[in-house]
Write a structure and sequence with these properties.
The complex is a heterodimer of chains A (217) and B (245).
Chain A: H1 12-19, H2 35-40, H3 45-69, H4 78-100, H5 102-108, H6 110-113, H7 119-127, H8 134-164, H9 172-176, H10 192-209
Chain B: H1 9-53, H2 66-77, E1 78-84, H3 101-106, E2 114-120, E3 126-135, E4 140-147, E5 154-161, H4 175-178, E6 197-199, E7 210-212, H5 218-244
Helix pairs in contact in B: 1-2
The chains are: A mainly alpha (217), B alpha+beta (245).
């Protein structure tokens, strides 16, 4: 770790940490992690956006903390240490939401607590933060959280629009007058299976455009 | 400490202990600092729900200082609150605002403390606001039922939930569902308590005692029905006495 190795904050390698999870190594569409919450919170746009922000905060902070502690953490209890860090951060987010964004916190209810179970967070702690310096770990954390978040938001956008006919609670379809033309909301979009199918469609579109993801066999 | 090996049991034990103590200290500190804000939020939310059941505080989403607005509306329109038992006897040593209805509903009927809030509109018309609490599919459902002066006709209903299925059971807190209750009656023509049923649309002719359930939200809809019957049932003999006076 000599000074000569010091690299600029946004070197090509660091920017890559931030950008690959958005596309080439997206946690949801490529690694297929964190699917569980992608089903649960994507019926409406607003909770999905707030959850995405919360995950970015938790993941950025958790990666930084674990990276700072990485040389002290006893290998045999590292998973427990990671869990404690994530759980504490999630409780913090939950408490702050309850104090300052009470309405949103009521909407999200259990989903904030469920961030703890998000396998992406622990996956990144284990795979990256435990063996890397603080700044790259931070970038890796928010990069992966953002990669998770944008899928969540896109899925929620289509599910709310097609399932409930609204966007962020605003009755788009009604204002466009489509109901008078005989359009009906697709109630199936509200149910969890359609989140999987929507994710599937995103994966399909992504693979058709990104040659790197096409397996050769 | 420094000489201690990272893999040794002593190190692991000390590390875990220190970690737990630090985490506990940080979390309890944060919880203590934030508690006043959280309690204020809960109190304001409760006052807002009470006001919304009688169609007050309708500007709450638009005003800049929501808390002050809600407090002011509450002081202006909620003129009285009291606690009764199932016979209608006043329990003067209890504050209606702090009675936890969920705990009361676990007691047998004879021991329940039942809060009532009274609102008075600008024209002097009174409403009696009853808190309700019940079970949905995933968790508690709750709200307020405002009755007109005849202790029979529903003036307005506010419902909410902790985590019902979005788009299905969660729809109980939308005006489309809540407004159905307006004008419904708790007692039939001969004065018997029948509550309000939440029924599958089209199976029962529309009447004074039923509203349409939410399709896809069957369990939550049934929860609303059971909640109304259970809670308002506790008050029913009091309502009956008041009606006949």
């Amino acid at each position: 770790m000599s000074k000569a190795e010091r690299e600029p904050l946004f070197s090509a390698r660091n920017v890559k940490l931030l950008s690959t999870p958005l596309n080439d190594e997206n946690p949801i569409t490529v690694q297929v992690l964190g699917i569980c919450s992608a089903l649960a919170v994507t019926v409406m746009l607003e909770p999905a956006v707030v959850l995405a922000i919360a995950v970015v905060a938790v993941m950025g902070a958790a990666n930084v903390i674990i990276s700072l502690l990485r040389k002290t953490i006893p290998p045999r209890i590292r998973i427990i240490v990671q869990l404690v860090v994530i759980a504490s951060l999630v409780i913090l987010v939950d408490q702050v939401l309850k104090a300052f964004l009470y309405d949103v916190s009521r909407q999200l209810s259990v989903f904030v607590g469920l961030i703890i179970t998000n396998c992406i967070i622990m996956g990144r702690l284990e795979a990256f933060a435990l063996g890397n310096k603080t700044w790259p770990s931070f970038l890796d954390g928010i990069g992966n959280a953002a990669g998770y978040g944008w899928i969540l938001i896109v899925v929620a956008f289509f599910r709310e629009l097609l399932g409930s006919g609204t966007l962020w609670g605003y009755p788009v379809i009604e204002k466009l007058g489509l109901y008078e033309l005989g359009y009906e909301n697709n109630g199936f979009m509200i149910l969890p299976p359609m989140a999987l199918i929507t994710v599937g469609v995103i994966i399909w579109v992504q693979r058709s455009r990104n040659r790197k993801l096409i397996e050769s066999n | 400490m420094i000489a201690m090996k990272k893999g040794s049991n002593t190190y692991i034990f000390l590390y875990a202990s220190a970690m737990v103590v630090i985490v506990a200290a940080v979390l309890s500190l944060v919880a203590t600092i934030l508690r006043p804000y959280q309690e204020l939020n809960i109190e304001i939310a409760k006052k807002l729900d009470i006001l919304r059941s009688v169609e007050k505080a309708d500007m709450a989403t638009e005003v800049s200082d929501r808390n002050a607005y809600v407090e002011q509306e509450y002081d202006q329109y909620i003129v009285e609150s009291y606690v009764i038992n199932h016979l209608g006897e006043r329990q003067d040593d209890l504050d209606a605002f702090t009675v936890n209805l969920r705990d009361e509903l676990r007691k047998p009927l004879e021991q329940r403390n039942l809060p009532i809030f009274v609102s008075r509109d600008d024209d002097g018309r009174r409403n009696f606001i009853i808190p309700v609490h019940g079970r949905g599919l995933w968790g508690p459902i709750f709200g307020y039922v405002a009755l007109e002066e005849d202790y029979n006709t529903i003036f307005g209903v506010i419902l909410d939930h902790d985590g019902e299925t979005p788009g299905l059971g969660a729809e109980i807190n939308t005006p489309a569902f809540e407004n159905q209750f307006k004008g419904k009656k708790l007692f039939d023509d001969s004065g018997n308590f029948v509550s309000v049923r939440v029924v599958k649309p089209g199976t029962v002719p529309p009447g004074d005692h039923n509203v349409d359930a939410i399709s896809g939200g069957t369990i939550t809809s049934q929860g609303v029905e059971e909640m109304l019957e259970e809670v308002l049932g506790s008050y029913s003999s009091y309502f009956k006495n008041q009606k006949n006076q």
